[in-house]
Specification:
- By secondary structure, the protein is of the alpha+beta class.
- The protein has one domain.
- The chain is built from two helices and two strands; from the N terminus they run αββα.
- The radius of gyration is 11 Å and the shape is globular.
- It starts with 11 loop residues before the first helix and ends with a helix.
Length: 69
């Protein structure tokens, strides 16, 4: 995880690290292993499901950096 990576456009649960920003899995309702992938604008850690979702979240961040976002 890059602790300086700020992820925007999240729901309240995603911004609090309680839901996956890729698939939307609600970690309060579904037991899914997750990993931190960045921070929300509030400073909370954002978590994505282990595996494909974490890969997608990281790849999306790289694309945004390449575009200068």
């Amino acid at each position: 995880m890059n602790p300086h990576k700020v992820i925007t456009g999240l729901t309240a649960l995603q911004a609090d690290g309680l839901a996956c920003p890729v698939c939307g899995a609600n970690y309060l309702r579904v037991r899914v292993p997750s990993v931190p992938v960045g921070r929300s604008v509030t400073g909370s850690q954002v978590h994505a499901c282990v595996g494909r979702c974490a890969e997608v979240a990281t790849a999306e961040h790289r694309r945004r950096l390449a575009r200068g976002w």
